[in-house]
Amino acid sequence: MASTSSNTNGIPLLDANLSSLPETVVCPVYDRTKLRAGIVHIGLGNFHRGHQAWYIHQLMQKGLAQDWAIIGAGVRPQDQLMRERLIAQDHLTTLIELSPKGKSAEVIGSMIDYLPIETRNTALIRQMAEPGIRIVSLTITEGGYFISSGDGGLDVDHPDIQHDIHHPQSPRTVFGAIVAALRLRREAGTGPFSVLSCDNLRGNGTIARQAILSLAQHIDSALAAWIEDTCSFPNSMVDCIVPATGPNEIALAKSLGVDDAAPVTHENYRQWVIEDDFCAGRPELEQVGVIMTPQVHAYEAMKIRLLNAGHQVLANVGELMALETIAECMSHPVISRFFHKVEHEEIAPFVAAVPGMTPSQYIAQIAQRFSNPEIRDTTRRVAFDGSSRHPEFLLPIIRDALDSGSSIEGLALVEALWARMCTGVRDDGTSIEDNDPNWERLKAVAQESAQRPAAWLEQHQIYGDLANDPIFEPAFCRWLQMISSKGGLATLQSYLENVQNPERGTPR
């Protein structure tokens, strides 16, 4: 490990320097040299370090989970920069809690290595094949699951999946690497591991299971049968607002006494709900507040439909109106009213209560969290990858509402705001930079839809049968025409002020 050095802008974050950090910074009390790996986590961004890694760290602070340390991994070239930064500081991370009452910092040490980023994923496969690895966890974003727009299964026609089918020893994808590692474990007799998805997907464990089994079936049916019989794929729900890190966050860490190249800021709230289905053991996560329950789906539905969908209610109109953060959106009187109206009237009716929390109570809670001015969670970050987030978070609610005969006016407006945002120009004429893996295609369709609104809905890989729905399609087109001619703010005001027609809530 590197040795101590002085820095007037904070003490460099290293194992050797932990005892020299300010007393106000909480540091690991366990001996990191004695930790042993039990988890490989793929997709090691801010959220993982501010959420799952924090929970493991808390167990270690209690003298538990010493054999459940985390080894980080990535499969994208852009993960290399994070790897370099974390290796340079002994894989330590400063977490900075941003509460309306003040700031506090702690250093977590639950991660002990970060694997090389390789096109063939050799090091990742080898590490996952090690007998000590009992959980492989994922935060690879909603778009990383290769979900087919047709049947919702694995998109086996995707070029990367096709590559993995024909070159299983040198896979490109996370799932190809997992299948390759499980093949080695089966051959060596070292047993299976659990795959723990921590992404914002309904039934994330079920989706991960489906993807891995489908890919394995195309490669080796006997291996697929072994995976199905021995591995487990617990569903989970994760929740914590973790903004992106930039120069301001690095400067904040220095002001608190720590020179950290990759600090993580987060709100003063976390929740983790997991289905207790682990084939090779697990840490005692309930000891640090994790809810272990077979009823993950109820918690998951509440969070995805009210919080994640609620984020999209705010983010696209925030971008159009040049509001930088979610907190600024919540402080805007019109946008805030829009958020509450859509949440209470069009989303909450399709969310069930969970123990100790009704949908209305949850809306009040997330409204308070979204309004925290200390959390500079940008509208740009929240709006990113709408082509994955809207089909996952919003469109299922629209379908439920249509099936029940309920109003979809506000949700149709949310979709129209996304379409307008994707034109790449704000209401004030400034440009919106690329903000989706499919940005160029979305932008071209959005610009066409400014003249012919139905063009946006003709993206059948996103909207499917909603494109021709006799209630949703005209509502969407009407709102998009209004946004294009009058702007986002005037359109929101029209939605909020118009008397609703009792026949399915259509404005007069």
Automatic annotation (TrEMBL):
**Residue span, Mannitol dehydrogenase C-terminal domain:** 296-472
Q: Which GO terms describe its molecular function?
A: oxidoreductase activity, acting on the CH-OH group of donors, NAD or NADP as acceptor
Alphabetically sorted, this entry's keywords are: Oxidoreductase
Q: Which residues form the Mannitol dehydrogenase N-terminal domain?
A: 38-286
Q: Which Gene3D superfamilies match?
A: N-(1-d-carboxylethyl)-l-norvaline Dehydrogenase, domain 2 (1.10.1040.10), NAD(P)-binding Rossmann-like Domain (3.40.50.720)
InterPro entries linked: 6-PGluconate_DH-like_C_sf, 6PGD_dom2, Mannitol_DH, Mannitol_DH/Oxidoreductase, Mannitol_DH_C, Mannitol_DH_N, NAD(P)-bd_dom_sf
Keyword Oxidoreductase among UniProt keywords: yes
This one is known as: Mannitol dehydrogenase family protein
